[in-house]
Amino acid sequence: MKWILRADHLLPLILLAGVSQYAMIAIDVMKSGGTSLWQLTNDDLDSAGILRYVKDCFVVFISCAWLIVLPKLKLPTALIVRIRIYFIWIVGIIFLGTLGFLFGYSPFTFLPAGLRWILLLHASFGVFILSSSLVTGLQHHKFIFRCLWLFLLIDTYAVILQFITASNLLDLAFGNSRLTGLFSNAGVAAFFSIAIALISFQLDGVSLKKRMIITLLSIFLALSSGTRFASTAVFIILLTQMWELTETINIKRRFQIKIMFVPMVLLAIFFGYQALVKQVDRGDAITQQLEKGGRVANFFEFVELLSTADLGELLVGRGLGIGTNTAIAKNIAEGIDPNLYRFNRLTDNALITSIFQFGLIGATLFWTGIYKFIIFVKPKYSKTAKNRYNCIIIIILLTLMAGSPLEHYFLMMSYATSLGAVYWKDQFAKKLRPA
Q1: What is the DSSP letter of 173?
Q2: Integer Cα distance of 150 and 160 in angstroms
């Protein structure tokens, strides 16, 4: 089993599982002369049949497989200690997440939705540990890179066909048509573009310039989805790659170029943001968040909602799964009004959703664990790893402000892969330091 968990096998399979879920349905829609704007219809999603569960099955496989091979892995002592803490932490989270059901705040029917994102988190932690093979197996990077290109080109081709149809039928401009590509909705398509850019960035066995081409194409896909967060995130990756590229320049010119680089980046951010707002045509992102229905306004609305909770609800929450995309989609599919259950509302805020599920006690434990892990991964020896780490953390923080990454397959897998690559790169740099 260990061979299939090697990076050159695991990463293409991760992407294949995510892409294959609704790709055939999206292709059938395009063949019929239609196009998917924002999301596939419920009928289209249902027609996917067993394929719609391929991603969940693969998450279960990774969740079990990394535990099986764990005793055979040679790991640093500090990481072994961290893994032991992780097991205690995750069990504590699950225990606190079930108290809301035991106290009768919510029915147990919400529990599978909660365990679904817990399982994705667990699988992602396994990918983080297994990513050591991504750093040691530079000879496999070209194969992984070709796989990324294959998935990227197929999705780009689908997006171009969808745009041609959308522009002809609906006279929609690029960006505000919110194209889905090979995926169920434009949000997933956007997260795919981030995953491709982040994973390719870690492939040091391929020239940086070639990886930057993939990032540029990922920006195109992010823009096609009409998702401002994804477009910004991939642009940050591109800027980090450009900064890394300056490290290869003659040392005498490097300082001068970096001095020029900073104001150029500031100008690029300013004009890039203006162009993004205009292209996506969804209004100014910052102003919009402050208005009614925006994420900042919603945050205060949900804080006010929490103020109506009784002491038990506030401390232990209403149970795992409450307020998640999976639970609400299930309610709607069954003809149940999600608002029948208190706090069962989409917030686009990971902090609020965590409080809804396992209360202040559970949320404190959960986010403390996440913070400690992020600090643990922080590089100390490799300059390249430090730059990439900062890039990843900025994107993760943006994710938390734009929504909750915990339910999103492509985000969790690419964040785990990238943080793992950064951690292991730093560990090998540590070994190479003179005594």
Answers
A1: P
A2: 16
Amino acid at 61: F
The DSSP letter of residue 52 is G
Judged against a pLDDT cut of 80, whether residue 103 lies above it is answered with yes
Neighbours of 271 (CB within 10 A): 10
For the chain, the residue count is 435
Confidence of residue 154 (pLDDT cuts 50, 70, 90): very high
pLDDT in tens, 319-376: 999 989 889 988 888 888 888 888 888 877 888 889 889 999 999 999 999 999 999 9
User: What is the tens place of the pLDDT at every residue in 251-309?
Assistant: 555 555 656 555 665 556 555 555 555 555 555 555 555 455 556 656 666 777 777 77
Residue 60: count other Cβ atoms within 10 Å of its Cβ: 15
- Residue whose tokens read 């909660």: 114
The CB-side HSE value for 12 (13 A sphere, CA atoms) comes to 15
Nearest 5°: the CA angle 122, 334, 38 is: 70
- Give dist(CA 45, CA 29) in Å, integer: 11
Amino acid identity of residue 411, one-letter, is L
Buried b (16+ CB within 10 A) or exposed e, 306-337: eeebeeebebbbbbbbbbbbbbbebbeeeeee
Question: Tokens 């005498």 belong to which residue?
Answer: 252
Neighbours of 380 (CB within 10 A): 10
pLDDT of residue 88: 97
In angstroms, rounded to a whole number, what is the distance separating the alpha carbons of residues 231 and 236? Answer: 9
Q: In this structure, which long-range contacts are made by residues 373-379, counting pairs with CB atoms below 8 Å and at least 24 apart in sequence?
A: 373/82, 373/86, 376/78, 376/82, 377/419, 377/422, 377/423, 379/422, 379/423, 379/425, 379/426, 379/429
pLDDT single digits (tens) 359-369: 999 999 999 99
**Number of Cβ within a 10 Å radius of residue 279:** 16
Per-residue pLDDT of 69-102, as tens digits, reads 999 888 999 999 999 999 999 999 999 999 999 9
Pair 416, 128: CB distance under 8 Å: yes
pLDDT of residue 364: 94
Helix spans in 2-110 (H): 7-20, 23-31, 42-46, 54-69, 77-102
